[in-house]
Amino acid sequence: MEKIVVIGAGYVGLVTAVCLADIGQTVTCYEIDEQKVRRLKRGQIPFYEPDLIKLLQTNIKRKRLKFVGNMVAGLDAASLIFICVGTPPRGDGSADMRAYYQVIDEIGHYLRDLTPLAKKVIIVNKSTVPVGTGRQAQLILDRLAGPDRAAVISNPEFLREGKAVNDFMKPTRIVFGYGSPDKDVRARTQAVFAKFVAPKINTSWESAEMIKYAANCFLTTKICFINEISNLCEKSGANVGVVAQGIGLDPRIGPQFLQAGIGYGGGCFPKDVLALRYLAKSKKVPSRLLAANLQVNQGQRDLAVKKISQVLEGNVRDKQVAVLGLAFKPETDDTRDSPAIAIIEQLLTSGAHVKAYDPVAGANAGRELGKYKNFRLIHNLHQTPARADVLFLATDWPVFKTLNWPAVKRQMRGATVIDGRNFLDQALIERAGLKYIGFGLAPDSLI
Ligand code: UGA
Question: 445 pLDDT band (50/70/90 cuts)?
Answer without folding.
Answer: low
